[in-house]
Design goal:
Rossmann fold; elongated; 7-stranded parallel β-sheet; 13 helices; alpha/beta
Length: about 350
């Protein structure tokens, strides 16, 4: 059987184990074309067990058309790589599997101009693999019929492992992410001030100057981040939608849930729309951009630590099915019967 070519930009550290598992089920080769978007973290090294190469986006079409691959999987990123791979796959009869992340159409001129092509890709792909049911609903509305959900997953064994005990008993909130406007950090800081909580608000990530009442942890490695989750009562995901971006998922929610951390997220977060974070079950959901609602949610959990702990306990149970093995099995199912010999 010819291997499957998997075209993507950067390899996120949380994806490495998932690609290894998929390669055990279906032979794959990773082709990484880089790009500016790195999910707020440095790109990870490709797994040694998985064949891989680095390419320029303009090389994608020729690689697909080389005859070396039984199918190609391509994600949403890459303005050149995606259409080039699609056209090459169609011209050479290579089964094309699209890995879809969008659950709303960005309102930029480029995205709107690309929508007719995207609808054709949704409609004609051998399969469309999505981040979750929210994305599945979107792609079906645009013509997709052969749809599989590959649940967004992290290495649950790593993120649930024992962490350093917390040293401060006060209520602790945590933000993890980039300083980009769509991540909502400015709103979260303002909400923390308005809530007037006797506790700590920590920001992990390279987010520039921060107010004195905010603890700047900077960029931390995964073990240190795991300790931060364990030391926090709640993870705040205050993302907002912009013309260019809407949060596809937010894997930090998966990471935090594994460490018994409750979630406060906005309705612009994919992990909310996709069903992992559920209001009143394992966290609180507030309207995107609503500083007062976010402040009220923080104050509510700070004043009821027992409720906060109950939400966190539910989250730890709810995240268990979101595994790298489940992600790999979904892709294997999408590829079954499609890969050319």
């Amino acid at each position: 059987m010819k291997p499957v070519l998997f075209l993507t930009g950067h390899l996120d550290a949380n994806r490495a184990g998932a690609f290894e598992r998929l390669h055990e089920m279906v032979p794959i080769e990773l082709a990484l074309f880089g790009g500016s978007h790195q999910h707020g973290a440095p790109p990870a090294a490709a797994p040694a067990a998985v064949p891989h190469r680095e390419i320029a986006q303009r090389e994608a079409g020729a690689l697909v058309a080389s005859g070396a691959y039984g199918a190609v999987v391509v994600g949403t990123g890459g303005r050149v790589a995606l259409p080039a791979a699609w056209r090459a796959a169609r011209s050479r009869g290579v089964p094309f599997i699209f890995w879809a992340a969008l659950w709303r159409t960005p309102r930029t001129a480029a995205h709107l101009a690309a929508l007719p092509l995207m609808r054709r890709i949704y409609r004609e792909s051998a399969a469309v693999v999505t981040y979750g049911p929210h994305v599945s609903d979107y792609v079906r509305a645009h013509g997709a019929t052969r749809v599989h959900v590959a649940p967004q997953a992290v290495d649950n064994a790593f993120w649930s492992a024992a962490a350093r005990p917390r040293a401060d008993a006060r209520f602790a909130a945590l933000f993890v992410g980039r300083p980009a406007r769509e991540k909502g950090l400015e709103i979260a800081v303002s909400a923390w001030r308005e809530a007037g909580i006797d506790g700590t608000f920590t920001v992990a990530g390279e987010c520039g100057p921060l107010p004195r009442e905010v603890i700047a942890a900077g960029r931390v490695d995964p073990p240190a981040l795991r300790n931060l989750y364990a030391a926090s009562d709640v993870l705040v995901l205050p993302s907002i939608a912009t013309r260019r971006f809407i949060e596809p998922w937010g894997l930090v929610a998966n990471e935090a849930m594994n460490q018994h951390t409750a979630i406060i997220a906005t309705d612009a977060v994919g992990a909310v729309a996709g069903g992992l974070v559920r209001d009143g079950r394992n966290g609180l959901v507030v309207p995107a951009g609503d500083e007062r609602a976010l402040a009220a949610a923080l104050a509510a959990l700070a004043s009821d630590r027992e409720r906060c702990s109950a939400l966190a306990a539910a989250g730890r149970e709810d995240v268990r099915p979101y595994t790298q093995d489940a992600w790999a099995r979904a892709f294997a199912a999408a590829l079954a019967g499609s890969v050319k010999a």
